[in-house]
Design a protein that fits this description.
Blueprint (H helix, E strand, L loop, with lengths): L7 E11 L4 E6 L11 E7 L2 E13 L2 E6 L5 H5 L5 E5 L20 E4 L4 E10 L4 E6 L7 E4 L5 E5 L4 E4 L8
Parallel strand pairs: 7-12
Antiparallel strand pairs: 1-2, 1-6, 2-5, 3-4, 3-6, 4-5, 7-8, 8-9, 9-10, 11-12
Length: about 170
Amino acid sequence: MATYDPRTIAIGVLGKPHGVRGEIGLRLFNLETAAPLAPGPVVLERAGSSAAHTVTQVRPFGGGLLVTFAGVDSREAAGALTHSEVRVERSVLPAPGSDEYFVADVVGCQVINHDGTRLGVVEKTFWNGAHDVMILRDGPGAAERLIPLVPEFIRGVDTASRTVRVEWRHDDDV
């Protein structure tokens, strides 16, 4: 998973090529995102490297999208992009509401408990089938702590100060 980027946000991952003319499948992270991708610039990230690309065509397909990139005109060229994370400028997405946040924005945040105790830094998140979960550690070699990103535990996310406030019982840690 990429680190926090205040300029772009990941919207999905490229899958396998479709057909022989360079089209490739895109699995979106959030199927409810309005206008998740339009022709224009994107950044593709994979294995620690990133490259700018231009989307030339997008169409719905199954549970995701089929995408064509400028200069990618064969099945082999599209296949070379498989497993790349697709990032877009945040400005193309609707801004989150006052009590909303992008899950990607909690990565790298300090997590502070309701009593002021520092619980650690969010290393990454994952979807467990029901909701997103933060994985955090309080220093190198410390045990990881899992905290669900649900209203029952999350008291506030301040992306400007890179802080997540939670209601978490220490004796619940395993």
